[in-house]
């Protein structure tokens, strides 16, 4: 094969889509006892927990979330951080992601952290 053909083939293979999982986690910022998760608390959680599980990187987006609180029987609107992570299925990753949810709920007295998984085709 000619060098140019090999280079073209390699570049096409490097950009070809891969089957991956896309996970979205929604971390509400309101504390049930009043107040909010502070920017410092969120940054420390990101550095000490999220970055250790999502070593390859993730995307964090500030959004406003609505959810129905069954205890108070009302719709709650609160600032929320959405964390998006793309990965290939691997042993233990689902448990690690669930550990993020557990620790956030424990540290900040949250009722839940929403997790949404979907299969995608992605290339980088």
Describe the protein's architecture and organization.
The chain is of the alpha+beta class. It has a single domain, classed as Alpha-Beta Plaits (2-Layer Sandwich). Helix content is 35%, strand content 36%. It contains 3 helices and 4 strands, in the order H-E-H-E-E-H-E. The protein has helices at 3-15, 39-53, 93-108; strands at 18-28, 59-69, 74-87, 114-122. The protein has a 4-stranded antiparallel β-sheet, with no helix packed on it.
Give the topology, please.
Blueprint: H1 3-15, E1 18-28, H2 39-53, E2 59-69, E3 74-87, H3 93-108, E4 114-122
Antiparallel strand pairs: 1-3, 1-4, 2-3
Helix pairs in contact: 2-3
Low-confidence stretches: none
As a percent range, the share of strand residues is 35-45%
Strand order of the main beta sheet, please? 2-3-1-4
- CATH fold name: Alpha-Beta Plaits
- Helix/strand order, N-terminal first: HEHEEHE
How many separate helices?
3
């Amino acid at each position: 094969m000619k060098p140019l053909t090999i280079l073209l083939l390699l570049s096409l293979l490097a950009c070809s889509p891969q089957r991956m999982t896309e996970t979205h986690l929604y971390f509400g910022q309101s504390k049930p006892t009043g107040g909010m998760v502070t920017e410092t608390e969120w940054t420390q959680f990101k550095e000490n927990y999220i970055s250790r599980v999502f070593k390859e990187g993730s995307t964090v987006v500030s959004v406003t979330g609505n959810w129905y609180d069954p205890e108070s029987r009302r719709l709650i609107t609160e600032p929320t951080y959405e964390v998006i992570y793309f990965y290939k299925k691997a042993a233990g990753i689902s448990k690690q992601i669930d550990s993020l949810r557990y620790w956030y709920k424990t540290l900040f007295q949250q009722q839940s952290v929403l997790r949404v998984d979907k299969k995608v085709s992605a290339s980088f």
